[in-house]
Amino acid sequence: MKTISTKLKTLAAAMLVAGGMYAQDVHFSQYTLAPMLLNPALAGLNQCDYRVAANFRTQWTSISGLNTYSTVAGSVDMTVGKITKYNSFAGVGINYFYDQAGDLKFNTNRVDLNAAYHFMLNRKGTMSLSAGLQGSFNFRSIDASKATFDSQWDNSTGTVDPNGVKETFGRTQMMFGDAGFGLFFSALTKKDHNFYLGFSLVHVNQPKISFYPNSTDASNVNERLYMKLSIHGGAQLYVTRKLAVVPHFMALVQGPAQQYNLGANVKMRLSNLPNDQTAIYFGAQYRGLFYSKGGPVDAIILSTRADYKGFTFAFSYDINVSKLMPATHTVGGPELTVMYQGCFRKKPRPGHCPAL
Questions:
Q1: Domain limits, the chain
Q2: Of the candidates 285, 294, 212, 214, which has an alpha carbon nearest to the alpha carbon of residue 255?
Q3: In this structure, is the dihedral angle defined by the CA atoms of residues 212, 216, 220 and 223, taken in order, positive or negative?
């Protein structure tokens, strides 16, 4: 009985966390492998001419059932336009994002259109500064039939009466648009060490996202999607000709929530040929999530990755180390990424691409 009670309390805590994130975004643990979500300035900045990526994530299956919390994303981006001074170029990208959260099936469908220009800062193309813009279309919905309220609680039986009086939502679907922009700097040294730093600000118009648009409660009517500030960076540092350390970080601030990711991968190249990028990676990172009215919700993330002939296959797993541990038993969320980067022409585009 004690175990059941603990699980119920922990599940309630999880639902409160999810509710607190209602006006915030969901993120992938392998954030560098979801470039169109990470920063609009990355559109078209890939290993050659185009990039196709797919990401899938699920979490909290031990306390909420399979696919109760799941996220899917897919993106395509490519270089466009005439190459100008110092081999500068433009890029465009499109991203689709779907997220389902909770028993009410709070669904988010989002389409992002990104456009960027990449300025090469020297003749060799070893330093670049990118600027990008983003426009988004969002559709959200909930399944109100699955909601239960205090008015349905039957004290005599200690159960919820499905035929009891229910509250009503002002609406169960909404559509809105938003916008954002980003900057990205990358540099390659003589020893093939790569450094990068990015910044983005999205949801700059802070659209209204209330399911109670006609409520007399002003806080419900005026609920908005918080603006999100993102700073991310990393490096690829070769220790030997075939072994590199790849540290990376991301900091997010969105309304009352702050998220920090800090980690590193070890990259092992499997070929001595300069144009053969076949490699395997093993890594770990820490994620901390902090609220203005609550403690950290964090995880240790273990990951592995393989690059082969333009393809990238990556898998990560979140080991839950937060207050949800009594119910999750450290079971967090698996995440899978498949990416392909290819060329339309025989020769690769001049300049370098940052090692994300």
A1: 2-342
A2: 294
A3: positive
C-beta separation of 252 from 240 below 8 A: no
User: 255-293 b/e with 16+ CB inside 10 Å = b?
Assistant: bebbbbbebbbebebeeeeeeebebbbebebebebebee
Spatial separation of the C-alpha atoms in residues 323 and 241, rounded to whole Å? 43
What one-letter code names the amino acid at 182? G
The CATH code of the domain at 2-342 is: 2.40.160.40
Q: What is the pLDDT of residues 200-255, one digit of tens each?
A: 999 999 998 887 776 666 556 568 889 999 999 999 999 998 999 999 999 999 98
Joined together, the tokens standing for residue 319 give: 């080991």
- Torsion over CA: 340, 355, 233, 204 (sign): negative
CA 89 from centre of chain: 26
From residue 271, give the alpha-carbon distance in Å to each of 173, 255, 283, 341, 351. 52, 46, 20, 19, 22
Query: CA 76, CA 343: separation in Å to the nearest integer?
Result: 13
pTM comes to 0.84
User: What whole-number distance in Å separates Cα of residue 8 and Cα of residue 15?
Assistant: 10
The Cβ-side half-sphere exposure at 116, using a 13 Å CA radius, reads: 35
Q: Can you tell me the distance from the alpha carbon of 168 to that of 94, in angstroms, rounded to the nearest whole number?
A: 36
What's at 43, amino acid-wise? A
> Which residue matches tokens 């002003």?
218
Q: What DSSP state is assigned to residue 181?
A: E
Dist. CA 119–CA 126, nearest whole Å: 11
Task: Please enumerate, as own/partner, the contacts of 206-209 that have beta carbons within 8 Å and a separation of 24 or more.
Answer: 206/178, 207/138, 207/176, 207/177, 207/178, 208/176, 209/22, 209/23, 209/140, 209/174, 209/176
Query: How does pLDDT run across 103-147, given as a tens digit for each residue?
Result: 778 899 999 999 999 998 888 888 999 999 999 999 998 877 766
